[in-house]
Amino acid sequence: METSDSRASGDPLVVLTDVQKHYGDFQALKDINLTVHRGEVVVVIGPSGSGKSTLCRTINRLETISSGSITVDGRELPKEGKPLAELRADVGMVFQSFNLFAHLTILENITLGPMKVRGKKKADAEREAHELLERVGVDAQANKLPAQLSGGQQQRVAIARALAMRPKLMLFDEPTSALDPEMINEVLDVMVGLARDGMTMIVVTHEMGFARKAADRVVFMADGLIVEEQQPEGFFTSPRSERAKDFLSKLITH
């Protein structure tokens, strides 16, 4: 489904094969097969309860799968221990809630991972942290505590914190859903910039404008299934499935 002008530039970075996820009798993911290429931006959309967030969280094993396989950069997801910690260092994740350490300054939030996990010296970690905070537009807040920042600023810090680990892949699980409307665009603008810079991204979101602007591919889920996937223009103008047509018609009319 790539085009010649797609950012996706080569080998698969994430491969899900026949993935199933059960919570007791409830099946949250059904026969999921998905490949995300290096440099590709894949936006996952669909109605609430369709399995989008579960799918996202399986990729760094925040959710375990019942069967099937997931590989990241050619390696199957480790079960636990140091190999799993190493994988999570390579896969940045940004959640609905910002999950910043409340007792640490913004700068300390960003430098903690690189120093503890990557073994960076404090001066180097702080220099890179300031560069990232500048990139997301909140370097002036570096010495404040998270509670002193707006929600939009905190989410931009959370993105910078994930980027500080120099991840191969960024996962976003509805990163704007907890924000006031006027703060949403400031976070989406940072994400669009990342997409343009070639970061591989899997984004679960309700923000259709972002999907149109930044995605290489839209994956539409419903009832635990990938119902269809295609490039944004095709998906939004001529969805192939009745389920997607119904979903999009509700978005437009409300």
**Which homologous superfamily in CATH is the superfamily?**
P-loop containing nucleotide triphosphate hydrolases
How many domains? The number is: 1
Unreliable spans are 1-7
Share of residues in strands: 15-25%
CATH architecture grouping: 3-Layer(aba) Sandwich
Indicate the percent of residues in helices.
25-40%
Query: SSE order in H/E notation?
Result: EEEHEEHEHHHEHEHEEHH
- Distance N terminus to C terminus? 31 Å
Give the helix/strand layout.
Layout: E1 12-23, E2 26-37, E3 41-45, H1 52-58, E4 67-72, E5 75-76, H2 81-90, E6 91-94, H3 106-116, H4 122-135, H5 151-163, E7 169-173, H6 181-196, E8 200-204, H7 208-214, E9 217-222, E10 225-230, H8 232-237, H9 242-253
Parallel strand pairs: 3-8, 3-9, 6-7, 7-8
Antiparallel strand pairs: 1-2, 1-4, 4-5, 9-10
Helix pairs in contact: 3-4, 3-5, 4-5, 5-6
Can you put this structure into words, describing what you see?
The strands form two sheets. Strands 6-7-8-3-9-10 form a six-stranded mixed sheet, with helices on both faces. A four-stranded antiparallel sheet has the order 2-1-4-5, covered by helices on one side. A hairpin with a 2-residue loop joins strand 4 and strand 5 (about 75). By secondary structure, it is of the alpha/beta class. The longest helix has 16 residues, at about 180-195. The protein is built from nine helices and ten strands. The protein has one domain: P-loop containing nucleotide triphosphate hydrolases (Rossmann fold), CATH 3.40.50. It has helices at about 50-60, 80-90, 105-115, 120-135, 150-165, 180-195, 210-215, 230-235, 240-254; strands at about 10-25, 25-35, 40-45, 65-70, 75, 90-95, 170-175, 200-205, 215-220, 225-230. It is a peripheral membrane protein. It comes from Microbacterium lushaniae.
